Amino acid sequence: xxxxxxxxxxxxxxxxxxxxxxxxxxxxxxxxxxxxxxxxxxxxxxxxxxxxxxxxxxxxxxxxxxxxxxxxxxxxxxxxxxxxx
Length: 85
What we know:
This protein has about 80 residues and is of the alpha+beta class. The protein is built from three helices and three strands.
């Protein structure tokens, strides 16, 4: 069980990845063990999916020790805009 909140993860991702948009959803019925995230950052520019996920995982290294499920979608600002956001 994790004590991390949506807001904590959002703040950390925004800070570490200089993200322009972050959505974090707790899908664990409040126990804080399963999260879904959408992250938009210019740091993803020119990087394949695996490298992007490694950047996110590095940013949340401490948190991922206790979070048992973390799903992520990563976009550059241009990709995010092209998705209609």
